[in-house]
Each structure stands twice: as structure tokens, then as C-alpha cells.
Design brief:
Elements (H helix, E strand, L loop, with lengths): L7 H27 L4 H23 L1 H11 L7 H16 L6 H12 L7 E4 L5 E2 L3 E8 L4 E7 L3 H14 L1 H7 L5 H10 L1 H5 L1 H14 L6 E2 L3 E5 L2 E5 L4 E2 H7 L2 H21 L2 E3 L7 E5 L12 E5 L5 E3 L6 H11 L3 H10 L11 H7 L1 H4 L7 E2 L2 H12 L4 H8 L7 H17 L2 E2 L1 H8 L7
Parallel strand pairs: 5-11
Antiparallel strand pairs: 1-3, 2-3, 3-4, 4-7, 6-7, 8-10, 9-12, 10-11, 13-14
């Protein structure tokens, strides 16, 4: 395979195969129906083939196309099962893998970063990538001091690819509305587009990862690999072993699911307090369950830590999470609708002059409040589907409120993390002490 296609014409043409392919398969499905094939079988086949093409194209293009697919994968849990089933395997694959760049391109990038004698940096270097993501792929290697390391190499032309893909995807966003109903695609693309420059900056990523590694250095439950070296579009970190979260979602024990879910909540909400940063890219490909010993028991929660990867997208919160979030959640939990509405208005969620029914606010926040009513809450796909259906019901006052709410820029990434985290918890089917974790880490929630 050649480098990531850099020509805007070539990438646009590739993305254009998506709506054309959908139209062709719909026509084929109609023909099969006329020929007497059962309707359910035809729909399933069309969905399956559409999923395969969709995520093959997004994966091959990498850049913004693949990043969009990864972001979309978090919301899979909210889809009706008859629609989600054909896509689940393709989505999971996109979280962990993508077609690899050829070795010659990899070597060229390493030479540009470390000079022509780049091999002296390593005792060994594996040309075949261990993982591939939206703007870079990861190779396993042994550093010159004997440490196992992960070498993250940015795809050539990734910047232009990111922006060009997301612009083109915005133009065909209605297509994804048909493929993945119930998901607001345009705001997702807009938010991804706004983060391009930061995610391309490996020096900034190295600084964020170093801050996290230092902040969690002595943590018995969460581990972040140290940064070894960074130059240009190459980032070298210590190798993090373990079980990808996508694998835990697919086949983990209930103890592993509960452990992963609990530590995910703890990591996401403790980061702003401990490091002044919020990890803002919560999808399963960025997390691992790391065994604490060689013979860790899958049914023993204490045998596993949460490993965290990829710090290219972070929200800088030097003063920690906004206290208003904790105050609003505490007020909603107590049923104090007027207090919650006033907090939202003060924080800019309501434009001046916007009128609302305070009780609709509590209904709108139900996906966040329900898990806090009990000591341990069991997340699952069906629960999330019910919540999504309830909030999408046009006759529901909460749905009308959702269309009138304004998301202040300072809350954009916090909202992304909250929704992404909920999606992962429901994919895991984890039982989690959410109330206790938020009480420990979210200012204002426990009444301090």
C-alpha cells in the first residue's frame, strides 16, 4: 500500500464511493426483493455490505476519515440492536487497526526525525505496525538501553488529510444519518475539525503524556507509559502491554468489565484534579487492562490496572473540573430543578432570553443522573438505547430543550468525554460505583 493519499481530488473521489455504494446496494436489494428474497435477509445483507465498505474506506484513508469513524464507534451502543449488529465488528476493528503504511515510508519518517543513522537509537525495530490509528501508526521496538518501546509515527500528509476529509464528510453527513440513525453527525465533525492542529503536534502530546505519567506514577490502579523521546512527527514511549479494551468489550469476564469501567470513570474525572488535564479522546482503542502479575486471574478485579494511551487530545483545566458541573449534578439528584436551570443559565448553556421549563431540565439530564441514584449502577446497551430514544422523541419536552441548549466552548471537550465515556461503559456492560467516584473527584458534587 502507498502513503496516505494526499491529493484532495483522490481523497474526495474515495469518499464519494460511499454514497454511490449505498445507492448501488439499495438498488441491488430492491432487485432481490422483486426476485422473492425475504425482506429481513435483504436488509441485513445491505447493512453488512455497507458497513464493510464504510469502514474499509475510512480506515484506508486514515486522517480525518478514520478519526471520524473512531469517534462514531463510541456511539454504537446507542443504536437499536438490529441496526448495530451488522456494524459492530467493523467498528471494533476500526478502533484497533487500519491498513499499514509500507516500511519504506516508515523508515523515511524515522530518518527525518532522528537522522540517517536512526537505527542506532534501537536495539531492534519491527517494521510491521503493532497498531494503527487515525493520524499515526505504532511500531514495537527495543530502545538502545533495552527498554521495550512503542514508536508512534505520524502519517505523511496527515494534516491536509484530516482537514480535507472532515470538510468532505460534512458535505455527505446525511449519508451517515441513514447508516447510523439517531447520531448528530455535523456537530461531531465540527468538533473534530477544531482539534486538528493540537492532535498533529507530537511535542504537545509528549508534554501532556509526561504530565500524566508523573501524576499517576505511584497509582496502584492506573498506569501511563513514560515518554522516552520525541522528535518531529515521531513519538517514542515505553511499551504498554495488556488487553485492549475492545477485546474486553468483546470477550472479557464480568470482573474485567467492571474493573475497566470503574477505573475509566476514575481516570477521566481524576485527571483534571491531579494533572490539570482532561483526556479528551475516549474510545476503546486508547485503553488497556494491564495485568499486575503474569498469572493475573480474569475473575479477580485487583489483578488488573487501567493503562492509558494517546494524549494528542487533552483539555487544559488547571483549576480542575468546573465546580458548576458538580453543583448542577447534585441539584439534579436532589430534584432541585430551579437551581439546576439557574446554573445552566449562569454557565452559558442558555442564550439570553431563552425560556424553559425547569422540570424538563431534570428529564434532559436523566442519562447523567440515573447512574448516581444508586451506589453501583449497571450500564448496558439497552439502557443507553432507551435514553437516546427518550431524548429523541419530538413530543418529549426534554427533546425540545436539547435543541435550544447552547454548548459553551469551554464545555465542548467535557461534553465529548462525558458522552464518550457513557458509550464505553455501556459497551462494556460494566457495573460501576459512579456516585462514589464523582464524589471523590468532581468539585461541588459532594458539597465541598
Amino acid at each position: 500500500m502507498s502513503d496516505v493519499p494526499r491529493s484532495a481530488v483522490a481523497r474526495t473521489a474515495k469518499l464519494a464511493t460511499l454514497p454511490l455504494g449505498l445507492a448501488g446496494r439499495a438498488t441491488l436489494g430492491l432487485g432481490k426483493r422483486i426476485g422473492g428474497a425475504p425482506a429481513a435477509a435483504v436488509v441485513t445483507e445491505v447493512q453488512q455490505r455497507t458497513a464493510e465498505q464504510l469502514f474499509r474506506v475510512l480506515g484506508e484513508l486514515k486522517g480525518g476519515a478514520m478519526k471520524f469513524g473512531q469517534a462514531l464507534s463510541v456511539f454504537e451502543a446507542a443504536l437499536p440492536d438490529e441496526l448495530a449488529r451488522p456494524y459492530r465488528a467493523a467498528l471494533t476493528g476500526l478502533q484497533e487497526n487500519a491498513p499499514a503504511l509500507p516500511a519504506a515510508s516508515v523508515h523515511k519518517s524515522l530518518a527525518a526525525a532522528f537522522g540517517p543513522h536512526w537505527r542506532a537509537k534501537f536495539e531492534s525495530f519491527t517494521d510491521r505496525p503493532a497498531a494503527a490509528a487515525s493520524i499515526g501508526q505504532v511500531h514495537r521496538a527495543v530502545w538502545h538501553d533495552g527498554r521495550d518501546v512503542a514508536v508512534k509515527i505520524q502519517y505523511p500528509g496527515a494534516g491536509k488529510a484530516l482537514l480535507g476529509d472532515l470538510n468532505q464528510l460534512a458535505r455527505i453527513s446525511r449519508l451517515f444519518g441513514m447508516l447510523v440513525p439517531g447520531i448528530e453527525v455535523k456537530p461531531l465533525i465540527t468538533e473534530l475539525r477544531a482539534r486538528i492542529a493540537e492532535e498533529l503536534d507530537y511535542a504537545a502530546e509528549a508534554a501532556a503524556q509526561s504530565a500524566y505519567a508523573k501524576g499517576y506514577a505511584d497509582d496502584p490502579d492506573i498506569t501511563v507509559p513514560d515518554v522516552v523521546e520525541q522528535a518531529g512527527t515521531v513519538l517514542v514511549t515505553e511499551w504498554l502491554p495488556g488487553i485492549p479494551l475492545a477485546t474486553v468489550i468483546a470477550s472479557g469476564t464480568q470482573a474485567q468489565r467492571d474493573r475497566a469501567g470503574t477505573l475509566l470513570v476514575r481516570f477521566l474525572y481524576s485527571g483534571p484534579q491531579r494533572v490539570g488535564l482532561l483526556h479528551a479522546d475516549p474510545h476503546p482503542g486508547n485503553f488497556r487492562l494491564v495485568p499486575t502479575s503474569d498469572d493475573a486471574n480474569p475473575d479477580e478485579p485487583d489483578g488488573w490496572r487501567l493503562g492509558v494511551l494517546d494524549f494528542g487530545a487533552v483539555n487544559r483545566l488547571p483549576d480542575g473540573m468546573p465546580e458548576a458541573i458538580g453543583i448542577a449534578l447534585r441539584g439534579a439528584l436532589a430534584g432541585n430543578a430551579d437551581e439546576v436551570a439557574e446554573t445552566l443559565r449562569t454557565e452559558g448553556f442558555l442564550k439570553p432570553g431563552t425560556q424553559l421549563d425547569p422540570t424538563a431540565v431534570l428529564d434532559y439530564l436523566s442519562p447523567l443522573i440515573e447512574p448516581l441514584r444508586v451506589a453501583r449502577f449497571s450500564f448496558n446497551r439497552e439502557w443507553l438505547r432507551r435514553q437516546a430514544s427518550h431524548l429523541a422523541n419530538g413530543k418529549n419536552p426534554a427533546a425540545s430543550l436539547g435543541r435550544r441548549l447552547n454548548l459553551p466552548p469551554s464545555y465542548l471537550l467535557i461534553h465529548r468525554v462525558t458522552m464518550g465515556g457513557l458509550g464505553i461503559l455501556c459497551q462494556l456492560g460494566a457495573t460501576v460505583p459512579v456516585r462514589g467516584e464523582l464524589g471523590a473527584w468532581l468539585p461541588g458534587f459532594a458539597g465541598e
